[in-house]
Amino acid sequence: MTHLTDTRTPSSRFWRPIRALSVALVATLPLSASAEVPLGDSTNWIGADLGIEQVRLQEAGEAYFVQIDATTTTQAETGPDHQPPTTVLPHEPRPEDAAVWHGVDVRNRKGYTAKIPSEDLAFLGAYARRLGLDQGKVGGDGRVDPDIEPGDDGSQGLGITRPTGLATKGWSNDHDSRINLTSTTSYPYRTIGTLYDGGGDCTGSLVGPRHILTAAHCIYNRESETWSYINFKPGRNGEGSAPYGAFSPIWYWVPQQYIDEPFIGGAADGHANNRYDIAVIVLEDSFWSWMGYVALSGNVLDTKTLFMRGYPRCTTAGSPNGCDPKTLWGDVKRCETGQYFNPDPMGWNYEIKTNCDGSAGQSGSSFYYYTNGAVATAGVFSGQYCDGACAGTSNDAWPNIITRITPTYLDVISWFRAAYP
Q1: Please, which residues have CB within 8 angstroms of residue 283's CB and are 6 or more apart in sequence?
Q2: How far apart, in whole angstroms, are the C-alpha atoms of residue 327 and residue 241?
Q3: Taking the model in full, what pTM does it have?
Q4: Which of 155, 166, 308, 394 has its CA 20 to 30 A from that of 285?
Q5: Which residues 6+ apart lie within 8 Å of 139 measured at CB?
Q6: In this structure, are residues 128 and 417 in contact, taking their beta carbons and an 8 Å threshold?
Q7: 290 domain residue, yes or no
Q8: Can you give the CATH number for the domain in which 277 is found?
Q9: How far apart are CA 273 and CA 165, in angstroms?
């Protein structure tokens, strides 16, 4: 194993807001008598090839929905800086508690718990990779042109000196280098879209024909214990732009730990950490282009040319200069990985600092790179972390945090890909 050390000792922790909340409860339907409900479409269940039964869901009560107006964040925990092994055995069992996810049937406004046996999860995850469920699909003319991305030398004539060293690679170096990206119907930008709920925004990315990867706080608020109605519009390039229309969700899925962690209150949004700040949204209708998804060890991920593109909310602090609503933005420099922290039971860190810029509305943006004729995401943008040294500094001096796709998250995403083909 490779170990990296960050010698700084956090003296205090702060979080910048990524969503602001105004609550308006929507009436919920009464629960019917308890009945066994399968997770997804059992008639096309690929787990049957392995003798794995589809998970039966347990009812978890009513799901209350809200209208949301800007940002919710989480707060990070420090942890040992640890790089996991390069390889993981495809049948290695996952931690039992990591296979418990909370789902919401959006149309019926009911909550459910899915407990996926750890051994089944690992075997199905390996089988899904053999079938290529984790691979991206370009679609359309099949053209993938990495030149669509702005240059990755970190300067582009802006006078930016890229930071060096582990401790500083999670910082934007006091320069917001985001620019407006207009080729939004080209791959992979057409797989990225707004999650709009009538007030605020987040960003989500397709990782399957009906499957969006985003941050959990984009759809669930732990303080009010309420969910958000959203629609997904990929490839937008302005307020009135929706080149592929709007897609409606039918299921939300977040880690049960994200639901269970108490709301603390106080600093910023008052969340304890963002290691569980990841979510899968299942759409009613399919799209024909998507990203892949991966779990990479730190020593491999550090070698990738990484990008983060999303839809900032232009009226909030920290939004880029010249921001127009519902437009796609990203750094002219490539994203660098800094400190890895907050390990899971397998030793894989949930969180990564990055020097790429982000602000309200970009929560849920994918952290991706080009591979195998498409792109693959390795995590989602969750929030901004400060250890005390950056208190009072400008917005873009704060290190941004990626919630990483760990091997367990990788297999859970594949489970939902298989359950909802």
Answers
A1: 210, 211, 212, 232, 247, 248, 249, 250
A2: 9
A3: 0.81
A4: 308
A5: 187, 288, 289
A6: yes
A7: yes
A8: 2.40.10.120
A9: 25
State which residues form the domain around 396: 14-26+54-82+95-419
Q: Is residue 374 part of a domain?
A: yes
pLDDT digits (tens, 9 = 90+) for 181-232: 999 999 999 999 999 866 568 999 999 999 999 999 999 988 888 999 999 9
Q: Kindly report, residue by residue over 387-406, the tens digit of the pLDDT.
A: 555 555 554 456 788 999 99
Residue 86 has a pLDDT of: 33
Number of domains in the chain: 1
**Alpha-carbon distances, residue 281 vs 31, 218, 353, 389 (angstroms):** 22, 11, 25, 36
Residue 249 belongs to a domain: yes
DSSP code for 363: T
The tokens for 129 are 């990779």
Q: How many CB atoms lie within 10 A of CB 60?
A: 17
Reduced to 3 states, what is the DSSP secondary structure of residue 280? strand
Helix (H) or strand (E) holding 125: helix 118-131
* Spatial contact of 377 and 368, defined as CB atoms under 8 Å apart: yes
Distance CA 378, CA 127 (A): 19
Residue 190 lies in a domain: yes
User: Read out DSSP for 69-95?
Assistant: -S-----PPP---BPPPS---TTPPPP
